[in-house]
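Ticket #4471: structure export looks truncated?
Reporter: QA, pipeline team
Priority: medium

Steps to reproduce: submit the single chain below to the structure queue and open the exported record.
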Amino acid sequence: MPSRAESALVGADAAVEAALGLLRHRDRSAAQIDRELEAHEVGADARGDALETLRRTGLVDDNRFAERRAATLAERGAGDAFIRYDLEAAGITQDVVEDAVASLEGEYERARRIVERRGASPKTARYLAGKGFSSDVVHATIAQAGDESLG
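Actual output as written to the record:
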C-alpha cells in the first residue's frame, strides 16, 4: 500500500497530466484550470501542486493569458467592457485585467474601424453597444462618421 506522500505525488502527477490535456488546444488561466480539475474531482492539494508546477514551468501564466485573450477579443471587434467581463470570468485579477486592456489599441480607434466598415447607423450603434463599447465611444464614432458623410 502506498504511503500518504506517495499517494499525494500520484495525485499531483495525475492533476498535472489532466491540466496539460486542458492546455493542449488553447491557453487557459489558472482559475479555469483549477475549476476544470475540481469538476473532475481532483483534490485541492493536488490541484494546488499541479498549478504551482505549471506556473513554475511557464505553462500557465495569467498575465500572458490576459494579454493574448484581450488582443484576440479586440481583433474580433470587442469593446473594453466585453474584454474586462471575459477576463474576469476567466478568473483574472482586476489589476491584470486593467493592464491587459491598457495594452490594447484605444477603444475609439477599434470602434471607428467597425463604423467605417458597417456604416454610421442606429444598427451599427446597437452592434457596438452589444460588443461592449462604452456609450461615449459609440456616440462619438457614430457622430463623427455621420458628420464626415455629410460632407
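Status: closed, not a bug. The export was complete when the record was re-opened. Leaving a note from the reviewer for reference: Confidence is low (pLDDT under 50) at residues 1-10.
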